[in-house]
Structure formats: structure tokens, C-alpha cells
Specification:
Oligomer: single chain
InterPro entries: Bac_surfAg_D15 (IPR000184)
Organism: Chloroherpeton thalassium (strain ATCC 35110 / GB-78)
Number of helices: 20
Largest sheet: 16 strands, antiparallel, barrel
Main location: membrane
Number of strands: 44
Shape: globular
GO cellular component, one term: outer membrane
Structural class: alpha+beta
Protein name: Bacterial surface antigen (D15) domain-containing protein
Radius of gyration: 33 Å
């Protein structure tokens, strides 16, 4: 339940929140006049409603509230004189910023952007009138309202191409602004030249002959090897991002200006939207938020982890920084640091209005100087991140790829234009870099279209893994290299990928060839932004890994865990995932620890699961065998029938997907049950438990191994009524949804069948086997979100078995209301139905749908030799369910009552769970 609450609220809150002067043909950044034609000035606070103190500030953060609530003197823009007169064209489409495009009589397009933000349109409609919306709006105070103005002196000094913004207020002018006057008239914002996308335009931004968005730039770079990004200019811009603490630099935060230089066109970066520069996430709530979404970095005097500070921009970085080696990187970092002088930082602070020249301004100046002093260390960490796994793009022209493995372990990569007649390189390389094994683990080169040739040569004692991925066309691959370190069990260091039947391969001693055919992404966003991660690892251990549950058998249980995922090339969604978690049940005073691994790289297209667990909650009770087992009224039930045991299991399972919703599996388990009982048998001792008095088979034979196989079909995930369910429709097979999400389904079904064999081994002195079935379906009802859930299950055992392997009934998973493991036998069957009705919706922090539920469950066990035991054990109950925002985030509370307890002592049990019981 705790995990669901964190995911709902923090996901919503998360939503809130260079040019090279020596380049021939490059233009200077466009500069607005420092003094705009105005209709006078006005004193206005960016947003006085962000003022707070005391507990609110402690919980939600001080942020930049003092800046937001301090009145500043701002010019009122004379839109009739500026740029010869402005005419509004249309509203912008930003997620939070309100913007208006205006065209001047000089032919230039300008953009007015609001200083304050409106996060409502980023939120689901169900949240827009909730307290979450109020909190989200309040958290806008984490932005510095004048960040775009503060950035201006730094971009000018570094020569970074940037659309400079000037602070102003739009006038109330219905005649000029027309339909936009109601929204924008009197609004505080900034005016800037809009770097619009344009293939060819005489009035293009900064004199560029073309201006493109990021994805169109990628397509342009691939289409022609004469199209290049100025990597050093981009690196300058990114180092400035680190310095400013601007963590939100995704692909749409950039435009690209192209300048012809002979046959080549060089592309300069144009960073946009500096709203997240200097963002502060202090306070309890924002701190927790940054634990869940770690790329939301708090601006301070020191740098946070560079991995997360650069995370939002990682995809653009990995495209545009591949040609820069360590020496060049360090030189550019020193150049940037040298420009960021004390006087420049002071000049930037002085651009703030007089009323803001206070202690916070002094702190900001001090923080910027400290970050400048440590910029080289931050730059070095950034280099290590992007040097580890490098993706290099060829082009759709004929390319000649030359890779040389050097004796010291380094690898030289050069890409030339190719003479198609001779299939040889020509001219100088248009890409060249030497990779150091101290920094680089893998190099991937994508050759794309047309006919290409790859030649890998050189001998070395150790080297870097190289992957070359061919594209359309008749390609040739030659591996003439040799790496001595691999020994007798030689591993591959060169990988060639090409599915074209006309491709020619010549392998070497360390070569592996892959002809797998991959599907083509449907659009540019899928192609460049939603590709599975294929490098590095990720570790989650924050508050998002908390979990909680409750039932009458073991009381409240709280736990925490951590999860590690390792990513590798073409291993989706990961190469392996490992998790460890632990919890403590306060009612039974017992603990549980578990380790789980999901290995996808063992056999392609399968999942190898390795699990280990030790728990005191697996075998809580033993009441004896059969349907007629009685409860002794003279003894305390908890003391008499409780078992003191600790079960330890180690399991391996191979899962083989047959379709998006069907899998087969085979596996092997080891189990050890450590049972605590008195060494002597004394029936008159009232401290003796039922288990100790009867000592069934298994008290001493407490170890076994088992082999099992089965299959399961589960169509529930795709039928959850959730706005974010699209991920379940693709066959990525990533354990597509949690059990809590699946049980919230409104239609669909699940079926699981498993057979298990226990051989005569370890302390199991005779073999036995069992078969287990679980089946359920969901029938939608006419009333919104209402459904009838049905389930049926059973288990059958053949051969003598230890008591802890019996077929049990009772507890949350079979018969609610009955104590856990109330009945035991050679076999069992159980069935249940649960009516889940939608009643209404209300708002408390978030929109909450809720309704009643009612259930009836029945079942019985079978025991060889038991006579006149045809009684069925039935329970009934009801409760409430609550869905937060949508049914994917559901909790249910229920009470179950037995109506046919064999002993006549009917019991009641309570349950609180994420999702539903089934």
C-alpha cells in the first residue's frame, strides 16, 4: 500500500516539476536590446501566493519563495513599437509555461513566455481539481523565476548560441492582442527570438540556413556524412548545464542551427527553456520526491551525482559527444571554467532587480563560484559516463569503417567515405577517435543504409568489445584482428550484426555473427526516445521500495528492499535483474528475507529465475489432517496449533514465453524446514503444541528437493482500466504488471497448471508428486468499474508426503475467514466468487473511487481413509475497495467469517492488501 501511494503522488509531482566562434559561416547569437521600448514600468511579484512559513515550509520547502513573493520593477513592453510592431500568431504548446508567438514587422518571430507556470494540463483530468494540483502548483516555487535572465551573461561569454530572454510585462491591449488579451494581458514573462524549425528561411535564427528539432537533426546526420554536429560547442553548452544545475535537458529542449561550410554543414546547438536552472528541492516532501525521481537535483554549492544530473539529456549526449576524446574534453572543460570568472558571476547576479539584491542573491553568487571551482571534477565524471559505452552512427552513404586494435588495448575507430568501385576508403576520415580501455567497455557502430565495408585489424593482448551493426545495402565485414588474452576458452570481442542475405562476412578468431532481423520503429519518438536501455546498470533502494500488508494470521507486516538491473546490448528489457527485500510481521513476531534474480541473457528469449528465501511465515499452523480436525476449546488456539519453524528455499526456474500472455516453465527447488519442538513427548505438558504431540511425517524428514514444470496463461494485465496501460500491449515481457495491478482487472482470465515431483533424496525417504491448478476469470458488469470475479483451484498429492507439503486450505489465498492452513489433506479443491461494485468517487489528496465488495468461498480437503467427511467448509465476507486515480492503484479491506468450521468455533479474520485477493 505504501508503494502505491508513493507511485501515485510522486508520479504526479514529478510532472511538475555553442557555438564555435572560429567556425566559418557561423553567426553570433541573436541579441535583444537591453532596454526595450516600454509603456512605463510596473511593480509586480512573480507570484505572491507562494509565500509560506513554519510547518508548510518545513514540509514543502523554502525553495525560491522569497524571490517569487518580492515585488520587482519591470517594463511594460510597447508591442506597437517593439520590432516595428508585434502581431500575435498563436499560443504555444508547452506543458507548463504559457507562451504566445508574436511576429514583428521586421519578419522575426518572437515568443513571450510566462514566468509563472501552470502544471494543470500536464496532469490527468482526475487530478486537476485535487489537493495534488494545489501541491503541484506550490512546488513551482522550486524554480527560480528569473533563471532565463540570469543565464544570459554566461551564454554570451561562452559564445553558446542561445535565444536570449528579456523580462517584461505584456500590456493589456485588446486591440493588438485580441483573443489572447484575456490570458496574456498584464502577464509577467520574458520576450525572446523564437528559434523556429525551418528547412530554408532567409530570416532563420542567427543567420542559419536551416533550423531543426533534435529528431529531424538525427535523420539529417544519418542521411549524409557531410552533416556534422559541432561536438565541442555542444559540450560547452552541456558543461554550462552542469554549472547551472539545469537537469531537465531532454531532446525537445534543443534546436539546431545549420551552417554551410563548403560541402559540409555544421550544426550548432541552441539550448532552450532554462526553467530548471538553479532549481531547489529542499524540504521533506521534495526530498522524498527526489529519492523517487533522482534526476530532480537540488541546486546547491556542490554538485550532485553527475549520472542523475545528466540523465534527462543522456540520449542527446550519446548522439552528439561520441567524437570527443579525453584530451579534447578536458581542454573544453578548462576553457569553460576559465570563462566563468568571479566578475562574470557577479555580473550575472547584478542583472537581478534591485529588490532582489539580498542574502539569497549573495548565496547564489557563492554557490556558482563553488560550482565553477569544481567544474573539472564534474566534467571528468561526465566523461566517464559517456565513454563507457559509445554509440557511433555511420550514414546512409557508402561508408568505409576502419577499426584498429592497438597493442596497448586501445581501439582506433575511423570512418571514411568509400570509393564504391574499388570498395576502398577515400580522403580523410569524417569520424576519428581512439578509445582507451581504462574508460571504454564497448563500442557500437551503426552503419545504416547503402553499401558499407568494415575492416577490423590489429593484434593485442587485451582489447575493447566492438559491435558493428549493418543496415540496408550490400555490406562487407572483415575481422583480421587477434586478441591473445582469451586463452583456450576464447570469447568474442568482435560482433557483426546484419540480416541481409547478400552481406559478406569474414570472421576472425574472436568474431561472432548475428543475422537476427529486427522490427522497424513506427516513428521518430519510438526510434530515438523509447528504445530499451542497453548499457550500464541501475540500483533502486529509495523510499519507493517500502511495502506494507496486514492480515489476521500474522498482523501488520512492513518491509523494504533494493533492486539492481543490468543492461546489455540487445537484451531487453535487461540482461538481469536482482532484488533483495526483507520484512517483519509484528503480530507473529517473525521475519522474512528474500533474494530474486531474473536473468534474460542466459538463453535468448527466456527468463532464468533464481530465488532464495528464508521465512517464519510459511508454516504458521498445524491442526492435523482431514476435514474433521477439531480445535481444542480447553487450550489457547494460538499456543496449541502454532508451529515454530523457519523455512529456507532455493529455487531455479526457466520461463519460456510462447505469446505475450502465455509461458511455459521448468524448475528445481531445494527446501529446508527448521522446526522447533520439544525433544521429549509429555502429553500432560500444557506447553506442548499439537505438532509436537503428534509428530507427523516431516518433523524429522525436513529437507527435500523437487522438480517441476507447467504453464500459465494470463490476459488480465491488458484489461485493467488504466490510462497508462499501453506498455502491456507489446511483447517485451518484462513481468508486465504487478500482482496488485492484475487483480484489479475488469475482464480477462488466468490459468496456471503445475506438476511437481519430489525424489527420494536428502531427508525425503520416499518419492511423491503433486499437481496444482489455479483458474480465475472476471466478468464486467454494466455499472462502471463493477465486476464479478470467479476463481477455482485445487491440488492433488500422490505418495507419502511430509506434513509441510500437504494440500492446505485456509487463509487469504484459499478460504478467507479460516485460519491459515486450517485443513490439510492429500488433495484439496476450493472455489470463490467476489462481487466488486462501484459506488462513488470523492477527493482526498487525489480522486478516489470506492465501492463495496462481497464474497463467498468454499472448499474441502480429501484424505485417504477418512470416512464420512463430505462436509464443505464455507466462508462469507465483505469489505471495501479504494482506487487511487485509476484502478491500477487499488487497495482492498475485507472481513471474512467462517460458517462451517468443523469444530463449531467459527472465526473472523481481517485482510488489507494491495489490489484484491485474486
Amino acid at each position: 500500500m505504501a508503494r502505491i501511494a508513493y507511485q501515485v503522488i510522486f508520479f504526479a509531482l514529478f510532472l511538475v516539476f555553442l557555438i564555435n566562434p572560429n567556425l566559418a559561416g557561423a553567426a553570433s547569437p541573436p541579441v535583444l536590446p537591453d532596454t526595450l521600448p516600454s509603456l512605463g514600468t510596473v511593480k509586480i511579484a512573480p507570484n505572491k501566493h507562494y509565500k509560506s512559513q513554519g510547518l508548510h515550509t518545513f514540509i514543502f520547502g523554502q525553495h525560491w519563495r522569497n524571490v517569487w513573493t518580492t515585488p520587482i520593477e519591470v517594463p511594460i513592453l510597447d508591442i506597437r513599437k517593439f520590432a516595428g510592431g508585434l502581431e500575435p500568431e498563436r499560443k504555444g504548446g508547452g506543458f507548463q509555461t504559457q507562451s504566445l508567438r508574436l511576429k514583428g514587422k521586421n519578419g522575426i518571430v518572437y515568443k513571450f513566455r510566462s514566468v509563472d507556470k501552470d502544471p494543470l494540463k500536464m496532469m490527468p483530468e482526475a487530478l486537476q481539481k485535487s489537493i495534488v494540483a494545489d501541491v503541484l502548483q506550490d512546488q513551482i516555487s522550486s524554480y527560480h523565476p528569473l533563471s532565463t535572465v540570469l543565464v544570459k551573461p554566461f551564454t554570451r561569454a561562452l559564445g553558446v548560441l542561445y535565444s536570449e530572454a528579456t523580462l517584461c510585462v505584456l500590456p493589456n491591449d485588446p486591440e493588438i492582442l485580441g483573443e489572447f488579451n484575456a490570458q496574456f494581458g498584464g502577464m509577467l514573462g520574458t520576450i525572446e527570438i523564437h528559434p523556429d524549425e525551418a528547412e530554408n528561411h532567409s530570416d532563420s535564427f542567427a543567420g542559419a540556413d536551416k533550423v531543426l528539432g533534435t529528431h529531424k537533426l538525427y535523420e539529417k546526420l544519418i542521411s549524409d556524412n557531410d552533416e556534422r554536429v559541432d561536438g565541442e560547442a555542444y559540450l560547452k553548452a552541456r558543461l554550462l548545464d552542469l554549472f547551472l544545475g539545469d537537469w531537465d535537458r531532454h531532446y525537445d529542449q534543443w534546436r539546431w542551427a545549420g551552417y554551410k561550410n563548403g560541402k559540409k554543414r555544421i550544426w550548432q546547438p541552441i539550448p532552450r527553456d532554462r526553467d530548471q536552472a538553479f532549481a531547489r528541492f529542499d524540504g521533506v516532501f521534495p526530498w522524498v520526491e527526489t529519492q523517487v525521481v533522482p534526476q530532480m537535483n537540488n541546486f546547491s554549492e556542490s554538485y550532485p551525482g553527475i549520472w542523475f544530473l545528466t540523465w534527462s539529456g543522456r540520449r542527446v549526449d550519446r548522439k552528439c559527444l561520441t567524437a570527443i576524446d579525453k584530451k579534447t574534453w578536458k581542454r573544453v572543460a578548462k576553457e569553460v571554467q576559465a570563462v566563468l570568472t568571479d566578475s562574470l558571476i557577479h555580473e550575472a547576479i547584478q542583472t537581478l532587480p534591485t529588490s532582489l539584491q539580498n542574502e539569497e542573491a549573495a548565496w547564489l553568487e557563492k554557490a556558482l563560484k563553488s560550482r565553477r571551482d569544481h567544474l573539472l571534477e564534474a566534467a571528468d565524471e561526465m566523461y566517464r559516463i559517456y565513454a563507457a559505452y559509445v554509440d557511433i552512427d555511420g550514414s546512409d552513404k557508402d561508408d568505409y569503417l576502419e577499426i584498429v586494435r592497438l597493442e596497448n588495448g586501445s581501439v582506433a575507430v575511423r570512418i571514411y567515405k568509400m570509393d564504391k568501385k574499388e570498395w576502398e576508403k577515400k580522403g580523410k576520415p569524417w569520424y576519428s577517435r581512439v578509445f582507451d580501455p581504462d574508460y571504454t567497455e564497448e563500442i557500437r557502430v551503426y552503419l545504416h543504409g547503402d553499401d558499407d565495408k568494415t575492416v577490423i585489424s590489429g593484434d593485442a593482448t587485451e582489447s575493447i568489445v566492438v559491435r558493428v551493426i549493418g543496415g540496408e545495402g550490400n555490406d562487407q565485414f572483415y575481422d583480421q584482428s587477434y586478441v591473445y588474452c582469451c586463452g583456450f576458452f576464447r570469447s568474442s570481442l568482435t560482433y557483426f550484426y546484419d540480416s541481409d542475405p547478400n552481406t559478406y562476412f569474414k570472421s576472425g578468431a574472436n568474431t561472432e555473427i548475428n543475422r537476427e532481423i529486427l522490427s522497424t520503429p513506427p516513428d521518430l519518438v519510438e526510434k530515438y526516445e523509447r528504445t530499451p536501455r542497453d548499457y550500464g546498470y541501475e540500483l533502486w533502494y529509495s523510499v519507493d521500495n517500502l511495502w506494507a500488508t496486514y492480515n489476521s494470521d500474522f498482523g501488520l507486516m512492513l518491509g523494504h528492499g533494493a533492486r539492481l538491473e543490468r543492461y546489455k546490448f540487445r537484451q531487453s528489457p535487461y540482461a538481469y535483474q536482482m532484488s533483495i527485500k526483507g520484512g517483519y510481521a509484528f503480530g507473529s513476531e517473525k521475519y522474512e528475507l528474500s533474494y530474486n534474480a531474473d536473468i534474460r541473457s542466459f538463453i535468448s528469449g527466456t527468463s532464468l529465475r533464481v530465488e532464495a528465501q528464508t521465512t517464519g511465515l510459511a508454516m504458521l499452523n498445524f491442526y492435523g489432517y482431514g476435514n474433521k480436525s477439531k480445535i481444542n476449546e480447553a487450550r489457547d488456539e494460538d499456543e496449541l496449533y502454532e508451529t515454530e519453524s523457519q523455512k529456507t528455499t532455493v529455487s531455479t526456474k526457466l520461463i519460456i514465453p510462447a505469446s505475450p500472455y502465455t509461458v511455459a516453465f521448468v524448475g528445481c527447488d531445494y527446501k529446508h524446514l527448521n522446526i522447533h519442538f520439544e525433544p521429549t513427548l509429555n502429553p500432560d505438558d500444557h506447553e506442548q503444541t499439537y505438532l509436537n504431540l503428534n509428530r507427523p511425517k516431516g518433523v524429522y524428514e525436513n529437507q527435500n528437493i523437487s522438480l517441476y514444470a507447467g504453464f500459465s496463461i494470463d490476459t488480465r494485465a491488458k484489461n485493467v482500466l488504466s490510462s497508462s496501460n499501453e506498455e502491456h500491449l507489446s511483447f517485451e515481457w518484462r513481468a508486465p504488471s504487478s500482482p496488485a495491478t492484475k487483480t484489479a482487472a475488469c475482464s480477462g482470465y488466468f490459468l496456471s497448471l503445475e506438476g511437481r515431483y519430489f525424489p527420494n533424496a536428502l531427508k525425503n525417504d520416499i518419492d511423491f508428486s503433486k499437481l496444482k491448478l489455479d483458474l480465475g476469470t472476471y466478468i464486467p458488469l454494466p455499472l462502471k468499474l463493477s465486476r464479478l470475479a470467479l476463481r477455482f483451484g485445487g491440488e492433488k498429492i500422490w505418495g507419502p508426503y511430509p506434513f509441510y507439503e500437504a494440500a492446505y486450505l485456509g487463509g487469504q489465498n484459499t478460504l478467507r475467514g479460516f485460519r491459515l492452513q486450517r485443513y490439510a489433506g492429500d488433495a484439496e479443491i476450493h472455489a470463490g466468487c467476489e462481487l466488486r461494485l462501484y459506488l462513488s468517487k470523492f477527493k482526498f489528496l487525489v480522486p478516489i473511487s470506492f465501492g463495496p465488495l462481497a464474497f463467498s468461498e468454499t472448499g474441502r480437503v480429501f484424505l485417504e481413509g477418512e470416512r464420512h467427511a463430505d462436509a464443505w467448509h464455507t466462508s462469507v465476507g465483505g469489505g471495501l475497495w479504494f482506487s487511487f486515480v485509476d484502478p491500477s492503484y487499488t487497495i482492498s479491506i475485507s472481513l471474512g467469517r467462517t460458517v462451517s468450521e468443523a469444530s463449531g468455533l467459527n472465526t473472523t479474520a481481517a485482510y488489507l492488501t494491495t489490489g484484491f485477493t485474486f
